[in-house]
Amino acid sequence: MVYDIISLPVTILFIVGGLGLFYYAIKLNDSHPKEHNFSNSILTLTLWITAGLLYPLFFSTNNPSLSLFLVLSVFFICIFTPSLIILILYYQYQFVVKKNPNMKVKRNFNTFLKHFDKEPEETNTSRSQKLKTEMHRKALHLFPAGVIIFIWIFGVYIWDNLWNAGVALGITGREFSRFLILTVGYSGILVFGALDYIRLSFIFENHNLFHLIPDNVLNLLSKTMKRKDNFEFIRPTVLILSFVPIFFFPFGVFAAAILIATIGDGAASIFGLRFGKIYFPKSSEKTIIGYFAGFFTSFMVSIIPLMLFESILETTEILIIAGGGALMFFVIDISNLKIDDNILNPILCALIMGFLYFQL
């Protein structure tokens, strides 16, 4: 029970954060019903609350040495990260906006939105611009997946196996890796969540804080967002939140699922835009080549983590599990549902691969 008590601040913080964003979703749906997808917002808020409720379970263990790491994790998530966010916002207000009154005009939501209203005249130019934006988007999505896998490799194979550091601290490399991934992941969610609070504050006429977003962040957003994304919760937040419920799976399955959700999805979008000619359905922006590129890439990227992190599996079992994940991705992709695939891809692909893992 001690772990539950220590973890309580994280649970409360994420539940309160999710409920606050629920209010934002209602306001967005009232003011911009055509641009805002209320169903996706509800799913995102559910993931916020789920992440808070699940956090204590990740540290439920009989190893008393983990208590110190849990305290450190809670400190970074609930104290260090919020303090850093507040410090950045204070700096922007006190030393940037206050000293330059024109900044409120320059960093205005309507001014920022004009960037997305400039449609290229030529079709080829428009397609090239979409491809460039999509590459930036998928690169940003790949970043958290890359960080997670790097941390796991460092903690298990270098920190523990090579340096043998876990003996002195009384924890295994897997426990250390989970501590780092959870701390970095939950802190990252808070950073992106704070960005959503500030970015979407344009819906409040008297409490608009959009001008507090630093220029470099706005430049990054302009390269990685589509126009409709300005009225939604930012995609990296949704993606990382969707990783939380599947973190209980064996790491090879978890890693395969997050790579499908990032690299597989990226391949489908980029190859479809670059080489696709035949659209299916015709009313969508998805192409036949994009579907097959996504399936093949998802299959290949699933094999690698299963081979690296699940040595107990036979080659045939790895191929079956990878095939199941790739097939699920293909079904989600071709279904063309209105639900955000950043939610569906990692969760459903992990479920089917996890089922096959335990059955085989």
Provide a compact summary of the structure:
It contains 14 helices and no strands. With 360 residues, the chain is an all-alpha fold. The longest helix has 40 residues, at 123-162.
Mean pLDDT over all positions = 91
- Tell me the distance between the termini: 35 Å
Low-confidence stretches: none
Radius of gyration equals 21 Å
Q: Which H/E pattern describes the elements?
A: HHHHHHHHHHHHHH
Task: Walk me through the structure.
- The chain is mainly α.
- 76% of the residues lie in helices and 0% in strands.
- It contains 14 helices and no strands.
- Helix 6 runs antiparallel to helix 8.
- The longest helix is centred in the middle third of the chain and has 40 residues.
- The mean pLDDT is 91.
Notable characteristics:
360 residues; mainly alpha; globular
Give the arrangement of secondary structure elements.
Layout: H1 2-31, H2 38-58, H3 66-97, H4 103-106, H5 109-117, H6 123-162, H7 166-169, H8 173-199, H9 215-224, H10 235-243, H11 251-275, H12 288-309, H13 315-335, H14 341-359
